[in-house]
Write a structure and sequence with these properties.
Layout: H1 2-15, H2 28-40, E1 44-57, H3 62-66, H4 71-78, E2 82-90, E3 95-104, E4 110-119, E5 122-125, E6 143-147, H5 148-154, H6 163-180, H7 183-186, E7 187-190, E8 205-211, H8 216-236, H9 239-245, H10 249-257, H11 259-273, E9 274-286, E10 289-302, E11 309-321, E12 336-338, H12 339-345
Parallel strand pairs: 6-12
Antiparallel strand pairs: 1-2, 1-11, 2-3, 3-4, 4-5, 5-6, 7-8, 8-9, 9-10, 10-11
Helix pairs in contact: 1-8, 1-11, 2-6, 6-8, 8-10, 8-11
Length: 352
């Protein structure tokens, strides 16, 4: 049943990524579907995204309280935290250059920058400088090189980085999600002048997708009765996706076989324990591609048995540019250290 519950919550989180659109003449839902398909087929693009944690409230954890580090202190550290991502993507040969910056505000503001490069078989990560955890001199300024194929073998799986297969999986899941939601209930068109687009962003059409307190009961019914059974079928037909998600096919087959028995419990869980205050995304589209997106999510989880509560709120915006233009990447780093070498310098056993 835990697998079914995770899938229910995961489906809701996936919805936060559905923001796209297309030409002026298309209805909002059709515009979104067409643009999502075209955007996932892009040979290259640049992306800049900002994510801010607006609210975080977690239930108390006895172990943490006993150790002298109460949950309230932890959540306070992350309140108003932001993540900034700048990335350049190319499909063939597959490569993603990304720089992530984490900012923890407060009396002692902390910024952590993590540059990363990912190819079909390698991942390069430059560890951040952390004041309380200084890097060994041998690693400063160097990338940690991780062989993804070797790592997969150590974990008993196979490396599956087929861009075409991944693209088809994303398209199939996106189509399933969008097909399931009623246009009049969830989709609307926004005037470009009222969309709050950043300076320089031009759009042919702006589309909004929104889950509200009013339509949330219908949303739960749609997810449990329509979306998740179809998602199960898609994943069961995709061995690569199962390996990437580290999910056993037998577990999904069992979940599908028990669906009618377990879905009532999942319905009750999503309807009574989870409250969606806001889940809305707005996407701006130019030439059938998504060029800008923004949104806000606010949720509450209440455990009736324990009385514990949790709250989560986040806002985000992102801009895409140079869609379809071949990027100019710098040469891959050669002065690197392996993950085993880094762990050894920190005194941890090799291979962890």
């Amino acid at each position: 049943m835990k697998l079914v519950q995770r899938m229910g919550f995961t489906a809701l989180l996936i919805l936060t990524l559905i923001v796209a659109g297309c030409s002026n003449s298309a209805p909002p839902k059709a515009a979104m579907q067409a643009a999502m398909a075209k955007t996932t087929e892009a040979d290259a693009f640049k992306m800049s995204m900002n994510i801010q944690l607006d609210e975080l409230e977690l239930p108390s954890i006895p172990e943490a309280e006993a150790s002298g580090l109460p949950v309230a202190s932890l959540t306070g550290m992350f309140q108003d935290a932001t993540i900034k991502v700048d990335a350049t993507y190319a499909k063939e040969p597959m490569r993603i250059d990304m720089n992530m910056e984490f900012v923890l505000p407060g009396m002692m503001e902390m910024k952590l920058a993590i540059p990363m490069i990912m190819t079909k078989e390698m991942l390069y990560v430059k560890p951040p400088e952390i004041p309380m955890l200084p890097l060994p001199e041998e690693t400063k300024g160097k990338y940690v090189a991780i062989d993804l194929k070797e790592l997969a073998e150590q974990q008993g799986t196979e490396l599956n980085m087929d861009p075409a297969a991944q693209q088809k999986l994303i398209q199939d899941l996106s189509k399933t999600l969008l097909d399931s939601f009623d246009e009049k209930t969830y989709f609307s068109e926004v005037k470009t002048a009222d969309a709050g687009l950043p300076e320089g962003v031009k759009a042919d059409q702006v589309v909004k997708f929104a889950i509200t307190e009013e339509n949330y009961p219908q949303t739960v019914e749609t997810i449990v009765n329509d979306v998740l059974p179809k998602v199960l079928d898609i994943l069961l037909a995709n061995e690569g996706a199962l390996e990437a998600l580290q999910v056993q096919k037998a577990d999904l087959e069992q979940a599908k076989a028990d669906w009618e028995t377990n879905k009532t419990e999942l319905l009750n869980l999503l309807q009574n324990d989870l409250k969606v205050n806001t889940l809305e995304m707005t996407g701006a589209i130019k030439d059938n591609y998504m060029v800008y997106q923004s949104g806000k999510i606010s949720m509450e989880v209440n455990d009736a048995e324990s009385g514990q509560k949790a709250k989560f709120g986040v806002s985000f915006n992102g801009q895409y540019s140079d869609i379809g233009k071949k990027p100019e990447f710098e040469a891959l780093p050669t002065d690197t250290v392996t993950l085993e070498q880094l762990m050894g310098l920190f005194g941890a056993p090799a291979g962890l």
